[in-house]
Design brief:
The complex is a heterodimer. Chain A is built from three helices and four strands. Chain A is of the alpha+beta class. Chain B is α+β, with helices and mostly antiparallel strands. The chains are: A alpha+beta, B alpha+beta. Strand 2 of chain A pairs parallel with strand 21 of chain B.
Chain lengths: 105, 759
């Protein structure tokens, strides 16, 4: 049962239902719905409810979007209002990204 | 004169005895009166010249002729000289005969016949049959006894041959013994179960020798079961066939089939096959008097005796004796002997028939046993090979399953170890982590594909798979399939080529989209797998009459001819060396074949070793689609689209579910925390929520209630994951709360099936 499209594994770290978090989710949803071509699995993690997960993943701020697969791992911090940055982060814009984009944390 | 009379045995009678006998004849003649007469030597003096002292008494009547001829003997006179008082005593050498022919000839030869002789001549019939020699000798014996008694003291030394008196008895007895001997010999042969032909030939030779018959033959009638009565059997096309024909001293075996048919009795000339013989009809008569006729090229018989050989009321054949050179009157004992021989032969024939029947049955049984043994043997071989295949499969499977699992476990263990080390110096570089995770992910995916294959195959094999038939565009499916394997092909450095040649109006096929894609993907990935770097794999599609043809061609390693039959069998990889080089469970082609057959199609393979293989799939264009599910559901299920939110706080469930769903093509948002996520869910607006529902956590129940409150149920389906059936865990739960549920643990396919049915 091979997938027709590329599979993306994303993680979104939020802190409860703060306005920023809600906005980030909305934006992400729009991007995924309208511009994204592949299949995604988005894991939404509430750092308030699951702090250990945030710690494991070295999340310092919320909201943070992390692309786990396909490699390389990229993290995008903020409410995702910079669409272009998000698209690049999701490999949806094929521009060379310098390593500083990805968080070395 | 009276040559024959004088040569017959004689007896010595005294004159007084002779006179008494004479007197008896005289009284007999007087008793008969006019119908009989007595002639003495005095009457015949003119015709026959007598020696002195000779006596003659001839009694003649219509029925009997008795001739008593007494010759005076010298011994009688010697005796009288010795004993003076017996001088008057005279003896006669007496000859007795009952045959009038010679006397008649004698009388008629003289010119003048005295009147008293003429009377006697009337009565003597030259053709009358004389009493048998036995009869004659008996009377002679009686006379002798009488004579002995009357002159016992005077009896001179006897010089007549005693033996001659008992000769006929002895002859009869000897005959009887020889007859018995022949029959005994036959009986012995029958007991020894000799070949029927031997028994028949012995019977013919022995009987022929014993009875001094010129020709003796046994004829067997060809009996066909179609024929009814006896007459029909003989009148049938085959006619009697000659079994054994004894001719003179040599026995000749021959088979002679007379095809001509005759309806009259008697002998008749026929075209001779050789100058030495003529064709004759043998009139054969059964006991019931029905006539049988047959034609055989044998000399014309002067005497003929046919004896039927009866077997269970039906005529098997006949024993035929005949003479071609001499006339012969068949004697009563000869006829009865022939009958006895025929009866004995009937027993032999019956025995041989039974024996051959028995042998036939034995052979049949033996054959049956052999067949059964062969069947058992092949069944055993099949079972053995099946068991071997199973063992091999288990070995392969455990290898195939263990390899990715080892990767997953090993890599994750490494990651875990480094994750717990706090010192940043010992931290694993991130690219390394990525590498590990990637390996873990790929291994997991590989495992999933494998498990899915196994599940699919078992489902297809157990007949549970139902095709979700749709009107598809084959060229589009082919293009999609090619697209999917593109990445794999790139990695393997194999060129992919697509050659579509289906006219637009024929570009329709009723099939299960997913299954069709699976067929193509299996064949494509197989082709890629077995094609070396720089090779080429081509997917061609075209349409024939009522058939869409897909052909996947590669220029890879090819398949040798002996391996081809194994190709589509389960759990078979063609070579252990390949197995090492090329992974795989050997399920792919078996599954592919099953799927093609589910579509009522055919799959064929052509291959040249080291040159490449080509798999051809022919699927019939089904003109009438068979809808199994509602069309809107079908369209969703075949091209999975939809957003699913998963609420699951346990990683060990969340990760595999996400994998299953994304692999099936769904977009997944996984909420680790549920209760606070309702707002987020509102934003995401998924078609389906899969949520945990644990008995001991009221929170789970609350999530569902809240979701139901904020989103209308027709827009959102909810499926619960529980640890035991809902009605057991939540007896009070409203049926409308959730749309479906799944009990953990579950198979990926179960989850997918439920989802397909829901959205």
């Amino acid at each position: 049962m091979s997938a027709l499209k590329k599979t993306y594994v994303l993680k979104l770290y939020v802190a409860g239902n703060t306005p920023n978090s809600v906005r980030a989710l909305k934006t992400l949803k729009n991007i995924l719905e309208n511009e994204f071509q592949g299949v995604y699995a988005l894991k939404v993690i509430d750092v308030l409810k699951s702090p250990q997960l945030a710690e494991e993943d070295k999340i310092l701020a919320t909201p943070t979007l992390s692309k786990i697969l396909p490699p390389p791992v990229r993290k995008i911090i903020g409410d995702l209002s910079d669409r272009e940055k998000v698209l690049i982060g999701l490999d949806l814009l094929y521009e060379e990204l310098s390593e500083e984009e990805s968080d070395r944390g | 004169m009276f040559d024959s009379l004088l040569s017959s045995p004689s007896l010595l009678l005294s004159a007084s005895t002779f006179n008494k006998v004479h007197q008896l004849l005289q009284e007999l003649a007087e008793q008969f009166g006019e119908s009989a007469t007595l002639v003495t030597e005095v009457d015949c003096q003119s015709v026959i010249s007598f020696k002195q002292g000779d006596r003659l008494s001839v009694f003649a009547s219509n029925e009997l002729c008795i001739i008593l001829w007494g010759q005076a003997t010298s011994s009688a006179f010697t005796l009288s000289n010795k004993f003076n008082q017996l001088q008057a005593q005279e003896f006669y050498q007496v000859h007795l005969s009952f045959e009038g022919q010679e006397f008649h000839r004698l009388l008629t030869s003289s010119h003048t016949i005295p009147p008293n002789l003429a009377k006697a001549l009337q009565f003597i019939n030259p053709y009358s049959i004389a009493p048998s020699p036995l009869h004659q000798s008996f009377i002679q014996g009686l006379l002798n006894l009488y004579a002995l008694e009357s002159n016992s003291c005077l009896l001179p030394e006897t010089n007549y041959p005693k033996v001659s008196i008992f000769q006929p008895f002895q002859d009869a007895l000897e005959q009887q013994i020889r007859q018995e001997r022949v029959l005994n010999q036959l009986g012995r042969q029958i007991q020894q179960s000799m070949e029927l032909s031997d028994i028949l030939s012995t019977a013919v030779t022995e009987t022929q020798q014993f009875l001094q018959i010129e020709h003796l033959a046994i004829y067997q009638f060809d009996v066909s079961p179609r024929m009814g009565s006896k007459v029909k059997q003989v009148a049938g096309a085959d006619g009697p066939s000659l079994v054994i024909h004894s001719w003179g001293n040599e026995t000749v075996d021959c088979i002679d089939r007379a095809s001509e048919q005759f309806s009259t009795l008697g002998t008749e000339r026929f075209h001779p096959p050789s100058p030495q013989s003529i064709g004759i009809r043998l009139p054969l008569v059964t006991k019931t008097g029905e006539p049988f006729c047959s034609l055989h090229f044998l000399p014309k018989p002067l005497a003929l005796l046919t004896t039927p050989i009866q077997l269970h009321q039906h005529l098997w054949g006949v024993l035929v004796a005949y003479e071609t050179h001499n006339q012969r009157q068949w004697k009563a004992y000869e006829v009865s002997f022939m009958e006895q021989v025929a009866q004995t032969l009937a027993i032999a024939i019956q025995q041989s028939q039974l024996y051959s029947q028995l042998r036939e049955q034995t052979e049949q049984l033996e054959q049956l046993v052999n067949e059964r043994t062969r069947e058992l043997h092949s069944a055993l071989l099949t079972a053995q090979s099946a068991s071997r295949a199973k063992t091999e499969f288990l070995a392969t499977m455990s290898h195939e399953l263990r390899t990715p699992l080892t990767c997953v476990i090993g890599m994750s263990a490494t990651l875990l170890r480094y994750a717990t080390v706090n010192s940043s110096r010992h931290r694993l570089p991130e690219y390394k982590q990525h590498q590990y995770l990637r390996t873990i992910y790929e291994s997991g995916e590989q495992l999933l594909v494998l498990i899915n294959d196994i599940l699919d195959l078992s489902q297809v094999e157990s007949g549970k798979t139902i095709l979700e038939l749709l009107d598809l565009v084959p060229s589009k499916v082919a293009a999609q399939a090619l697209q999917i394997v593109q990445e794999t092909a790139n990695k393997a450095r194999v060129n992919l080529r697509l050659d579509l040649n289906i006219p637009v109006k024929y570009d329709h096929l009723i099939a299960d989209h997913q299954r069709l894609q699976q067929i193509l993907l299996n064949l494509l990935s197989n082709a890629i797998k077995f094609t070396p770097e720089g090779g080429e794999v081509t997917l061609r599609a075209w349409s024939e009459d009522e058939v869409i043809v897909f052909q996947i061609k590669d220029n890879g390693i090819g398949i040798s001819e002996e391996h081809r039959p194994l190709l589509f069998q389960r759990f078979q990889q063609l070579d252990s060396s390949y197995r090492r080089k090329y992974g795989g469970t050997g399920l792919g082609l078996a599954l592919t074949k099953q799927l093609v057959e589910l579509h009522q199609g055919r799959i064929e393979v052509e291959s040249i070793l080291d040159k490449g293989s080509s798999f051809t799939v022919r699927l019939p264009l089904r003109t009438t689609p068979i809808p199994i599910l509602k069309p809107d559901i079908l369209s969703l299920s075949t091209t999975p689209q939809g957003r699913i939110v998963l609420i699951e706080d346990q990683e060990e469930w969340g990760i595999p579910i996400c994998d299953i769903l994304t692999t099936a093509g769904y977009q997944v948002v996984w909420m680790v925390e549920g209760l606070g996520a309702t707002q987020q869910i509102q934003i995401l607006r998924p078609q389906l929520i899969i949520t945990k529902l644990n008995l001991d956590q009221s929170e789970d129940y609350k999530i569902i209630t809240r979701l139901r409150q904020i989103i209308p149920s027709r827009e959102l389906k909810i499926m619960a994951l529980t640890s035991q059936p809902i009605h057991l865990s939540f007896p009070n739960m409203d049926n409308t709360m959730i749309d479906d549920y799944l009990v953990k643990p579950f198979e990926p396919q179960q989850l997918l099936t439920k989802i397909i049915n829901l959205i």
